[in-house]
């Protein structure tokens, strides 16, 4: 019986080694406690990237069934080590036309890997800072949603491009 258990653990170990994501360079999540407040900024700091490599950048969103919108509007900001900043307003679809939430996961929680930028090179030495804030509004309203329900975690991921 012990031999069988040991073999099983050995097989799991080998599978886990070969299933590692070789493209992943950075992958970090920040929890959103309760609801994502309009004035709450999620921040990621990126250091020591190869200036000769190109990368694809993604935002990862983990949401629950409490998320009641078809889309998600975000404002991103990338601050370069020299002080330059690039700000983008982004829109992502979060639900199918029938109202079913998109994303991976069979239960209450869905995970969405959202394209941010592709074929990016980090040419400057130093720390890059990526910030993200929600910019959701109800239809016909000018003021933004103060507390966005259903967003559990926001992640930022960097992958090497494969040429």
What's this entry about, in short?
Keywords: Lipoprotein. With 163 residues, this protein is mainly β.
Q: Give the N-terminus to C-terminus distance in angstroms.
A: 47 Å
Number of helices: 1
| Whole-number tally of structural domains | 1
Helix/strand/pairing category: mainly beta
Broad CATH class: Mainly Beta
Strand content: over 45%
Structure explained in plain terms:
By secondary structure, the protein is mainly β. It has one domain (24-160): Sandwich (Jelly Rolls), CATH 2.60.120. The protein has one helix and ten strands, in the order H-E-E-E-E-E-E-E-E-E-E. The strands form three sheets. The chain has a four-stranded antiparallel sheet, with no helix packed on it. Strand 5 and strand 6 form a beta hairpin. The longest helix is centred in the N-terminal third of the chain and has 17 residues, at 2-18. The N and C termini lie far apart (47 Å). The model is unreliable at 8-19 (pLDDT under 50).
Main attributes?
single chain; 163 residues; mainly beta; Jelly Rolls; 1 helix; 10% helix; globular
Question: Can you lay out the helices and strands and say which pair or pack?
Answer:
Blueprint: H1 2-18, E1 24-31, E2 36-37, E3 42-46, E4 55-64, E5 71-79, E6 85-93, E7 109-120, E8 128-134, E9 147-148, E10 151-160
Protein name: Gliding motility lipoprotein GldH
Keywords: Lipoprotein
InterPro entries: Motility-assoc_lipoprot_GldH
